[in-house]
Structures are given as structure tokens and as C-alpha cells.
Design brief:
By secondary structure, the protein is of the alpha/beta class. Helix content is 38%, strand content 16%. It contains 15 helices and 16 strands. The two termini are 28 Å apart.
Amino acid sequence: MTYPESIQYLESFVNYEKLPVYPYKESLKLERINNFLSKIDNPQDTLKCLHIAGTKGKGSTSAFLAYILRQAGYKTGLYTSPHLSDFRERIRILAPNCKSQIPNLEFEGMIPENEVAALIERLRPAIEDYNKHSEYGALSFFEVYTSLAFVYFKEQHADFVVLETGLGGRLDATNVVNPLVAAITPISYEHTQKLGNTLGEIAAEKAGIIKGQGLSLISAPQEKEAAAVIKNKCIEAGAKLYEVGKDITYRKGNGEFKINGVLGEYSGLKIKLSGEHQLINASVAVGAIEALKYHNIGIGYDAIKQGLYNTLWPGRCEVISNEPFIVLDGAQNVASMKALKEAVRENFQYKRLILVLGISSDKDIKGICNEIYDLADEVIVTCADNPRAIEPAMLTGYFNGKKVHITDNVRQAKEAVFRLAKYGDLTLVCGSLFVVGEFRND
């Protein structure tokens, strides 16, 4: 099987990342992936995992963790979604003292194409046999490649694996693991048709990753309703809860910041990722690293400091061009859009801001547009090549009083940027990781 054939095979499975509406609780079943994994010798049970859920910042937090662990000398698996350019970004190995084999270091350690093809070829008979007889229905795209990742990390003898949840947590395919440490990044309204209409309901889905006596759970600052759900779940599961803002604090100044953790103080820290919200993500990551000490795994200050500084996470306040000046960010809900707005104002100087915006139809479209409205001087509305994308023309009404340009796709939006942007302008591309990925790679 060739790599293109393996990707074509993966894409033959139902992909909920591309469906705007589906019955969440009926579609996602942990029994299905658990049963399948049992037929391939439960590779996930051999892995030492750190499990990350949340609404915003879970990808950045996962990256911080993986880079710290790599800096400490551990071969670290990193599992994230969705991807910006290449499916292989989702499954990576960050190995110590190992130079990247690809020219662009941003996604070093991606699973090689031949490994994807070989794994799919090996797993295909088991997948098809399972789907033929499964009482829980056929495996989804996410379940198949999660299984593939577990096998790959096992066979690569990863010392640790950092797992980012796909959707929610309770029913997410990654929730078959029993992690050493778990973390929940800030929770806000998202996927309300699936996860619930209140912060409490959404938090309950995210908190589904809290399980197992003795687990340490690191939580970012949360709204009162979400915080109460997380606290109660920790009590119910017998997990130890450590909260950023209470047990773990940070303070910034002079281009650096300091974290006061549960077990130590870490000063003189720097990161390359922009925005106050990234300091919260870094603090969650440091708390999770500290919690490994309860498993007799000690990671020192130098590894934490250098790992944080080395962390790259493309598509988050990422500058991809200076002429014209273009910044990409995957902000796709109200809370992340608010954080992005603050990061832009804090980190960039410009004459006008040209906003390139595309949003998935299952998001809080009005809330997102209202949040970013006052930052934009001129707006280019567009859509990703994804069935979930809302028609660009439907966004125009949220920007009354602004000059708005309608484009049919991201390529047209990019062409419009090069026509409209002048010296001193900043172009901000956001609203969807799918839009950011297409803009970045077109």
C-alpha cells in the first residue's frame, strides 16, 4: 500500500471533523474503540500518557509538555488534531538529540509516510473484520487513526505520550487510556449542539478524562460553573486537583515570566508563543510536569525552562509574512477570539487591520464576529474546503459599517490580501484552523 492509498483508505471512514451535525452520544462510543483495541493487544495499555482536554489552549499545552519531556531526555509521542497541512502532523515523536529529517522544524518528528502506509496495511484486516462483526457500528476516522497512533507509539518505544482530546473528553477515542496526569485547559462555549448548552454540561464532558484513584488533574482558571464540575469530578474519582491561579501562579515582567508551582519556583522563563493565554497554558504544562514527581519521575528546572522556550506550535499568532504583514491564528470560539484580540493589541503595531475570517457553521458565529468586530478596519470573509464551513456571505451582516469583501474560498481570500494590504497594515487570518491551514499552505 502506498501513502496516498493509505490516506484514501483513512478518508473512507466517517469523519466527524467534517460533519456539522450528527448525534454526538449515539455516534461516539468508547465501547467501539475499546473492543477494537482489545483485538490488537491493547497497545494503549503499554503507554505512559498525559491526557489534555479543554476548549482553548489544549494543543499549545500539549506542545509545551512534549517539548519539556523531550528536553528532559525522554522520547515523547505527541498526538494532536486537526492538522494544518499534512495528516502526519497529528502523530509525532519528539526524540532527544535527534535532528529533524524534514526541512521545516515546526512539525519535526512527524510519522513517516512509509510508516503510515505500513501500519494501515497491517491493521486493515483487523479493522475490516471488526467492522463486519461490530455490535457498536463501524470505526470512525478518528478511532482508526487513534488506534494507529497507539500502535506506532508502542512500537517506537515512546517513554511518554502526550494526548490531546479530539472532541469533549468523556466519549473521545483518546479516553481509553489511564493517564499518569491529566489537564483541562480553559473551558468555554463550543460545540453546544453536542457537548451541552451550559458551561456545566460542557465541563462535564471535558471532565470525563478524570478517572483513576491517585490521578493528578491540573486545571487552568475556569468560570465558576465549570470549576465546580471539575472539582466535584475530582472528588468523585479520588483525583488530586491543582488549579492555576490558586495552587499554581505566574507573574510576568521584563519580557520574562515566573511560575510558582506546587513543588517549586521557576523564574526567568520565556516562550515564543504570543499572548497572555499562552502563559496560562505554560503554567498548566509545568503543573502537569510537576505532578509526574508523584510517579517518581523528576524533571528539572533546566529542562522546563529550555523546553518551554523551544516549543513551536504553528497557526497560533504565527507570523508567516512581513510584506505584507500576515498573522495566522486558529481562534475559533468566543473565548479564544477574545484572547487573540488581546494578543494582537499587545504584540503588534499596525496602521490598519485587515481581517480574513472563515467560521464553521456549528460555532457561535454571532459571538465570534461581535468579539473581533472592533479590531477590524476591513474584512475579507471566506470559507475552508470543509462541509462544516458557513457560507461567507452569511458573515457580512455581522460587520455592518465595515468594508467587507466576499470570497468563495481561501485562495481567493489570499489573493485579496495581496491586493488590499498596504505598508504598515496587519492581516489577521482566523476563525477556523481549517482556514488557517489552507491559507498557510496555499
